[in-house]
Amino acid sequence: MDNNTHISPLMGQEISCVMREINPSILTDNQKIKDVIIKSLKKCEFGILNTIYHEFKPYGMTLMILLSESHLAVHTYPEHNAFYFSLYTCRGPDDAEKTFAEIRKFLGAKEFSFVKNDVVPLVNKQSLDHSPKVQPLLRVRS
Questions:
Q1: Which domains does the chain carry?
Q2: Which one of 18, 53, 60, 131 is least enclosed by Cβ atoms within 10 Å?
Q3: ω before 58 within 30° of 0 (cis)?
């Protein structure tokens, strides 16, 4: 294997969160939210492959970011003073938490519901128990 080859661990991480009680001037600044999310992903060395963004009228937005490590989804609900965040990464346990913490700090949400799920996306548990030759997924970075 060359230096550009990354072997994904068997364990990934998913974080889903709804944040509430956010300052409305922050929650309605779609461009600033998008910029902070992208900056946070880059700071945590995620590989951004593509971004899909839609702004709703009179307010709200959806942002989807395709990552070389998986994906991120964000939906804002200014009419309910809420922000939905979901990040899945296959780099390993605890990988998504730094990005989540940066975004939460920026938003200053006073209340949030948080679900963290460490998952095994590449094989099932039975395969792990009975087959020591399970091969991890190879991902090549250019």
A1: 13-121 (3.60.90.10)
A2: 131
A3: yes
Please identify which residue in the block is written with the tokens 């590989």. Answer: 47
Catalytic residue among 16, 68, 75, 127: 75
Is-catalytic flag, 80? no
pLDDT at residue 96, as a whole number: 85
What band does 9 get if pLDDT is binned at 50, 70 and 90?
low
The one catalytic residue among 6, 8, 40, 70: 70
6 is catalytic: no
Identified catalytic residue from 16, 90, 127, 142:
90
Residue 64's SS3 state is strand
Residues 6+ apart with CB under 8 A from 29: none
8 Å CB contact between 88 and 70: yes
Q: Give the helix ranges, DSSP H, for 19-134.
A: 24-27, 30-43, 97-107, 125-130
